[in-house]
Amino acid sequence: MEMRAQEQLDHYHRYFICHGCWARIDIPLPIPLQTLPTQIPWPAGATEQNFLCFVCRQAMAYGREEFLANLNPSTSDSDICDSAAVFQFSLPCGIDNCAGLVEIHAVMSKDSSIADAVGFATKISAVAITCNRGIHTHSGPCVSASSVGFALDKEWTAA
Ligand SMILES: [Zn+2]
Ligand SMILES: [Zn+2]
Ligand SMILES: [Zn+2]
């Protein structure tokens, strides 16, 4: 008798639902099956995190509560954790000479380079995103291609 290979439930993912187009923004952070909600990783001290939706290219703020509400089981086969990671764009605020940054997270292929980031950054449309000094709000295109910071985000990366 032939047994069909069972896909093994391996871990969970959290995700956001884009506030603009309702596409799913899957977060490639493997969360072990036994993890309690209180143990779900979330950057310390942050009430909101800005994420980019690659479908509508809008960047918006998302809260921890909605992160915790969305749970998706994953199997170890061809999982986004293998191919993608959370990166952070850092863009100068510049309003009234503010030296703060506009920080936007984006789920991108693990091998993404700064060249990929610069190419994409000018297509990002911010929707009421606050700079990291909490003073200025950005809406619309917020990037000049010459000043894009881009790095893997360690707070959103599994240890
Ligand atoms: Zn969207
Ligand atoms: Zn995964
Ligand atoms: Zn600012």
Taken from the alpha-carbon principal axes, the silhouette is globular
Assign the structural class, choosing from mainly alpha, mainly beta, alpha/beta, alpha+beta, or little secondary structure: mainly beta
Radius of gyration from the CA trace? 17 Å
Low-confidence stretches: none
Oligomer state equals single chain
Order of helices and strands: EEEEEHEHEEHEEE
Number of strands: 11
What's the tally of helices? 3
General description of the model:
- By secondary structure, the chain is mainly β.
- It has a domain of 94 residues.
- The chain is built from 3 helices and 11 strands.
- The strands form 3 sheets. Strands 1, 2, 3 and 6 form a 4-stranded antiparallel β-sheet that branches. Strands 4-5-9-10 form a 4-stranded mixed β-sheet.
- The site of one zinc ion has 7 residues, from strand 1 and helix 2.
- The site of one zinc ion has 8 residues, from loops.
Protein topology:
Layout: E1 9-17, E2 24-26, E3 31-32, E4 48-52, E5 58-63, H1 64-69, E6 71-75, H2 80-83, E7 84-92, E8 101-109, H3 114-121, E9 125-130, E10 137-141, E11 149-152
Parallel strand pairs: 5-9
Antiparallel strand pairs: 1-2, 1-3, 1-6, 4-5, 7-8, 7-11, 9-10
The protein binds zinc ion (3 copies).
Residues 93, 95, 98, 100, 131, 133, 135-136 line the site of one zinc ion.
